[in-house]
C-alpha cells in the first residue's frame, strides 16, 4: 500500500513549481546570493543533506542553522525556540539576493503554534527581501502562503502525511540540484564509467 501511495504522490508533484524553484536558485547563484535551509525534525536532517548537495553539486553557498548545534541550543536557551531561525537569519544578514528554502511537513502555523520558528524565520526573510521556496506537506501552511515557489507534497492518505512529505523533500531537492540549469559538478557514481 505504501509504495502505491508513493507512486500517487510522485504523479501529483507540481513540476511547474519545481521548475520555478530551479529558476529562482539559478538567479540566486548568478547574483552571488546564498541559500539558507530551514527545517525541524526530519526537515532538519533533510536540510543538512541538502546543504551538502547544493554546495557540492550546484556550487551555491548554502547553510542550515540546525548544522551548528552549539549556536542553535544557545539561541533556544537564551531567546526561545520560536525565534531561533529569525535571530539566526538576522545575524547571517539575510538579504535580497538570498533564498530561504523550507522543508516542513505542515509549513508552519502561527495560530496553532506549530513550527512557529519557521514562521518567524520566514517573516524575517520576507522583510529582508529574500526569496522563499519550500517543499512542504498538507496544505503548505505559512510557507505556501508567503513562498515565491512551493512544492506541496500531495496528501494521498492522512495516515502517511509525514513519511511522504519528508521522503519527497529529498526526491524534490535531488531533482532540483541535479537539474541541468543548476548542476555544476558531476556526482561520483554518475562519473564512474
Automatic annotation (TrEMBL):
Coiled coil location: none
Residue ranges constituting the SIS domain according to the UniProt record: 25-185
Gene Ontology BP term (one): carbohydrate derivative metabolic process
Molecular function GO labels: carbohydrate derivative binding
PROSITE patterns given in the database record: SIS (PS51464)
InterPro entries (UniProt xref): GmhA/DiaA (IPR035461), SIS_dom (IPR001347), SIS_dom_sf (IPR046348), SIS_GmhA/DiaA_subfam (IPR050099)
Pfam families per UniProt: SIS_2
PANTHER family xref list: DNAA INITIATOR-ASSOCIATING PROTEIN DIAA (PTHR30390:SF6), SEDOHEPTULOSE 7-PHOSPHATE ISOMERASE / DNAA INITIATOR-ASSOCIATING FACTOR FOR REPLICATION INITIATION (PTHR30390)
Protein name according to UniProt: SIS domain-containing protein
Organism: Ferrovibrio terrae
Amino acid at each position: 500500500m505504501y509504495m502505491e501511495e508513493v507512486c500517487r504522490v510522485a504523479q501529483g508533484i507540481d513540476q511547474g513549481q519545481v521548475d520555478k524553484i530551479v529558476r529562482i536558485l539559478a538567479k540566486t547563484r548568478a547574483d552571488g546570493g546564498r541559500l539558507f535551509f530551514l527545517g525541524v525534525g526530519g526537515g532538519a536532517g533533510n536540510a543538512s543533506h541538502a546543504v551538502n548537495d547544493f554546495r557540492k553539486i550546484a556550487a551555491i553557498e548554502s547553510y542550515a542553522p540546525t548544522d551548528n548545534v552549539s549556536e542553535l541550543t544557545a539561541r533556544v536557551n537564551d531567546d526561545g525556540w520560536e525565534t531561533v531561525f529569525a535571530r539566526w537569519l538576522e545575524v547571517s544578514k539575510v538579504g535580497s539576493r538570498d533564498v530561504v528554502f523550507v522543508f516542513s511537513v505542515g509549513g508552519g502555523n502561527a495560530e496553532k503554534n506549530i513550527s512557529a520558528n519557521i514562521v518567524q524565520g520566514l517573516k524575517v526573510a520576507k522583510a529582508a527581501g529574500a526569496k522563499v521556496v519550500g517543499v512542504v506537506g498538507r496544505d503548505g501552511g505559512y510557507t505556501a502562503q508567503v513562498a515565491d515557489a512551493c512544492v506541496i507534497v500531495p496528501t494521498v492518505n492522512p495516515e502517511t502525511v509525514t513519511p511522504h512529505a519528508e521522503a519527497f523533500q529529498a526526491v524534490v531537492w535531488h531533482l532540483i540540484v541535479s537539474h541541468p540549469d543548476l548542476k555544476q559538478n558531476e556526482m561520483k557514481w554518475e562519473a564512474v564509467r
